[in-house]
Amino acid sequence: MFDTLALTAIPEQDEALRAPVRALIEEALAGVPANARARSWIGFDAAFSKLLGEAGWIGLTLPELYGGRGLGAFARFVVTEELLAAGAPVAAHWIADRQSAALILHYGTEAQRLEHLPRICRGESFFCIGMSEPGSGSDLASVATSARRTDEGWRLSGQKIWTTQAHNDDYMIALVRTSGTPKDRHVGLSQLLVDLRAPGITIRPITDLNGEEDFAEVFFDDVLLPPDALIGQEGDGWQQVTTELAFERSGPERIYSSMALLEAWRRHLIRNGHRDAAPMTLLGSLTAELATLRALSIAVTSLLEKGESPAIEASLVKDLGTSFEQAVPRLIADDLGSRPDEPIDPELRRTLTYLTQIAPSFSLRGGTREILRGIIARELGLR
Questions:
Q1: Fold assignment, 250-379
Q2: Which phi and psi angles does 358 have, rounded to 5°?
Q3: Which of 286, 319, 317, 321 is nearest to 302 (CA)?
Q4: Residues linked to residue 159 through DSSP beta bridges, in sequence order
Q5: CATH 1.20.140.10 residue ranges in the chain?
Q6: Averaged over 106-110, what is the pLDDT?
Q7: Does domain 128-239 have CATH number 3.90.660.10?
Q8: Which residues pair with 176 in a beta bridge?
């Protein structure tokens, strides 16, 4: 049952990480415009990720044995917050750092840990997650991509879609059916570690309305995987993937997607000397909402620090956070539109245009609003 979230503060030792990581980001992103910073989530920059890895800012919560720093959830919160607030290009290492490494640590073999975790921490190995499939929508339990065990290992066939950065990544952790049929739902699902360079894999980037190619569809044509490709236990895929999704939904990732626009608009108001009630009230309201969401996200982080699995709390924060992220472009567009004769800096205009186009996706990634509210209702005993 859901209990009230207890608000807390970030411990001093974790807060102390903020200054050095901010200095690295500021130096690396000097001169990068707001419209580029607004692409933080899809900004694939292998060199920047390697720079972070070399400085020790990837894999913070992993044990030192595997290349991490053995720190807690608050340390990762601080670093993640700095990266997203600054609009750093995180797409290359993002999924591996946030969830793939944690999944391998929890469920992988020692050989898998030793092979993959140090390279993730160094910013040298990039992962994507193979969950969504054509025709399945958000019904993850209905996946049909299958893998059968053979004398050689595993034979993988099927298709994944909306796979973030698959065309740029090295590995995929795929949810597949190793027994039964989609009618069996949660039963018979397993997770496999897939080398995306293996013969029989075809990856086709998907071009969106912005001309970006951050998603891809991936085809598996009788792909041979080694025997040790299985992560965890065969048939435990559903339990493992729900744990993985908890890693994805429980951080500060769900409140900062419109931060570059909010900051560019704030500078616009200052430059134009605004003291009008309407824009100042809106700026205050958005700042207060952001501060509240941040406090809730820190509270969820405190539960992770205690070793808990805050499924309902993380779902609530993600639902509220993505609603905020989607509202920011609309509200700022309305404000600017209310003063049609006021000149708008081209950088602000480009940032607003981009986020207006991409904002509908904010409530899709990491689980749709409907899925999240179903989780919340179930946890509350309402369904």
A1: Butyryl-CoA Dehydrogenase, subunit A; domain 3 (1.20.140)
A2: -90, -15
A3: 317
A4: 219
A5: 250-379
A6: 96
A7: no
A8: 190
Q: What is the DSSP letter of 157?
A: E
d(CA 226, CA 112): 12
The tokens for 218 are: 């991936």
pLDDT of residue 248: 66
Of the residues 124, 248, 253, 325, only one is catalytic, namely 248
Q: Which residue has the tokens 């640590």?
A: 105
Cα atoms found within 13 Å of the Cα of residue 354, Cβ hemisphere only: 23
Rounded CA gap, 238 and 173, in Å? 13
Outline which parts of the chain fall under CATH 1.10.540.10: 12-125
Compute the distance between CA of residue 4 and CA of residue 6 in angstroms, rounded to an integer: 6
CATH 2.40.110.10 placement within the chain: 128-239
Cβ atoms of 67 and 6 within 8 Å: the answer is: no
Question: How many Å apart are CA 190 and CA 244, to the nearest integer?
Answer: 13
Q: CA 261 to CA 255: how far, in whole Å?
A: 13
Residue type, 208: D
Does residue 248 carry a catalytic annotation?
A: yes
Strand partners, 376: none
Q: Which of 333, 327, 154, 312 is nearest to 242 (CA)?
A: 312
Nearest to 42 by CA among 88, 81, 83: 88
pLDDT tens track for 330-363: 999 999 999 999 999 999 999 999 999 999 988 8
Two structure tokens written together for 66: 């595997």
Look up the CATH architecture of domain 12-125.
Orthogonal Bundle (1.10)
154-169 per-position pLDDT tens digit: 999 999 999 999 999 9
AA identity, residue 111? A
* pLDDT of residue 252 exceeding 80: no
- As a whole number of Å, the CA-based R_g of the chain is 21
